[in-house]
Write a structure and sequence with these properties.
Layout: H1 17-31, H2 40-59, E1 61-62, H3 71-83, H4 93-103, E2 108-109, E3 120-121, E4 123-124, H5 135-141
Antiparallel strand pairs: 1-4, 2-3
Helix pairs in contact: 1-4, 2-3, 2-4
Length: 168
């Protein structure tokens, strides 16, 4: 039995190396506006992780709802690359989130005061829209899709028998 992996598995034309570098700068600046520039070695590793994450994200479906935290996806990204022969693949959360923003067609949410805990993206294995070449719009406009506003949940006050201020 022979396993066949087609060469082009992406539903869109992928950006070249220069475009990927520009997309990383745009998305990282939007996600982390106060971040210092990366040092040479860190910049190379970050770009490599971003490129791998962008490839992975390009194969996923886009959905309107958030199906789990983005942190659940970076292990899947590493596994996806390992299945394609890149067993040394490493993808961390920040480059993956930059790839989500750079894609340009994914709903996302990353409240700065909740990073890295409540980082969400509208991604799914199936059942949603196929990726579009919206990354070109990100390059053209030098802006990413805006974050989905955070809905504040109103919780009812605790029952007085469970919590009573001043009781001790």
């Amino acid at each position: 039995m022979q396993i066949y992996h087609p060469k082009n598995i992406f539903p869109i034309q992928m950006p070249g190396p220069d475009d990927l570098a520009a997309l990383l700068v745009i998305s990282r600046n939007q996600l982390f506006p106060d971040a210092k520039p990366l040092a040479d070695g860190d910049a190379r590793e970050y770009l490599q992780q971003f490129a791998m994450a962008f490839q992975f994200v390009s194969t996923l479906r886009r959905v309107d709802d958030f199906q789990g935290r983005l942190g659940d996806w970076y292990a899947r990204a590493e596994s996806w690359h390992a299945e394609r022969g890149n067993t040394a693949a490493s993808v961390s959360l920040a480059p993956l989130m930059c790839a989500v923003l750079a894609a340009g067609d994914i709903r996302w949410q990353a409240p700065p005061d909740r990073w890295p805990h409540d980082v969400l993206a509208g991604l799914a294995w199936s059942g949603g829209a196929v990726a579009t070449p919206a990354w070109r719009d990100v390059l053209r406009t030098k802006t990413c899709r805006p974050m989905v506003p955070v809905k504040l949940e109103r919780h009812s006050a605790p029952h007085p028998l469970i919590y009573s201020p001043g009781a001790g």
